[in-house]
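Thread: quick sanity check before group meeting

JM: Hey all, I'm pulling together slides for Thursday and realized we never actually wrote out the predicted structure for the chain we discussed last week. Dropping the sequence here so it's in one place. If anyone has concerns about the input, flag it before I start.
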Amino acid sequence: MSFGTIEGPFSENTTYMISSRAMYYDFFQSKFDSKSKTPRYNFFDLNSKISYNFKDNSILTLSGNYNSDHIYSPPVNEDFNYDIGWDNTTLSLNWLKVTSKSLFLNISASYINYGVKSALENITDSLGNDYFSSSDLKDFFLKTHFEYVWHEDHKFKAGIEVGLHKYTLLNRNFYDPILEISPDYEEDLLSTEASFFLQNEWKILPTLNTNFGIRGTYFKDSDSFKFEPRLSLSYAITEDFYVKSAYAVANQFLHLITRNDITLPTDLWYPSSKNILPSNSQQYVFGIDSYFFDKTYLFSVETYYRTMKNIYEYKEILDYDRSISIEENFTKGEGEAYGVEIFLNKRAGSFTGWIGYTLSWSRRLFDELNAGRIFFPRYDRRHDISLVIGYKYDEKLSFGVTWTYATGQGYTMPNSQYIFSPLGINGERERRIQFNYTNRNDYKLPDYHKLDLSANYKFTFSTYAAEVFVNLQNLYNRKNAFAQYISYDIDENTGEKNSTPKLKQITLMPFIPTMGISLKF
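JM (edit): ok, ran it. Output follows.
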């Protein structure tokens, strides 16, 4: 992995910054462990910004960002090939004007291009047919908002936004390279969006703070106008103990649709239309914050409950006829999510860090899925733990420890098999092996956890500030499941498929040590 940052002034009023990172795990894997079955992976990102300060207390900023992640199957892969990639490009022009100590004005124009593709070729019988999907989302936004402190106890914010969206989508149950370059299979959708928001932060009492506002959005393609009120309260019972609560309504006009019978990422982003309604949620939050030992420690507990309507998933039986729209393969349902989050943070001293724990449930109900019974969605995780510890030995030497744990994702998995012998054309019966499946998402991948260690030493090289770093990722080489699937081995003598299925696993990111030197000049 490599990274670098360059920043400085062009002139008295102009500054610039360019930074980039890259990982070449797939390159080193191909050179030093070419027979490994671990997925090949690489990523690259580039960030840049240039700013000009005017004499009238305004700043003009042009910024850009590009990042790319790519996961693909190694050459030694006996069951199927896959190629999955994410790309994101953003470009924005922003003008910030400070007209007085109490008034800020911001105007911006931005372009966003996000793309994701999933290609699965020669998939084993248990995973169904080949699969290819891609979502290319292009957005152009014009935004303006201002902030006005009209009273010492009031801070008012307001803004408007106009957006133009172009979506190029493709979803097929086969893979051919022609799909990636031919527009014949693509579905193009255009839509416009306009919204406004009003918000006021009000300190009603020295111990009581509120934040209330409303957002209104019009999405042309679905011809819908939605209001989103929100309110939050914070009350200081003592100087170190706070009670807080919040309520918010949210609407989402872009839906993430995933296949539940394939464990590899199959993300398809689909916008709202006349038939695909915007998702709606209402969320209620209540919690406490407690500071102690002179505010060195923060302890917080927060509970939440969220209802969801107009959420979409694929139907049980899909139709990939080119004459029908992709959205005809979707079915609508509703859901709820609730849980509790516990957080402890040490904020000062040689030892700093935090530990967070989340216990949560997410449930779905669709008339056309799982025989109309409630089920847990794919990304439902019962437990989630994060532990981060930092130790500063002195001004030069520091250490870090990070440990994460999460309950495994759920998906629909075969749990038994049977023999089916249909009558063939010639009157002969053909022997076929068929699967029985679990209820929707009843199967859980193994729990995810890993430990990372780091050490940093700062020193001076000539007249430049330098730093040596060592990172040990996935220290105990936990083989976390990126995906699992059922497959049959091939008999070396007969060349035929064995009748006993096996559970196989794709593991991403083994133990990876890295070290390097950074130099600031």
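AS: nice. The longest strand covers residues 131-151. Residues 25-32 form the longest helix (8 residues).
JM: adding both to the slides.
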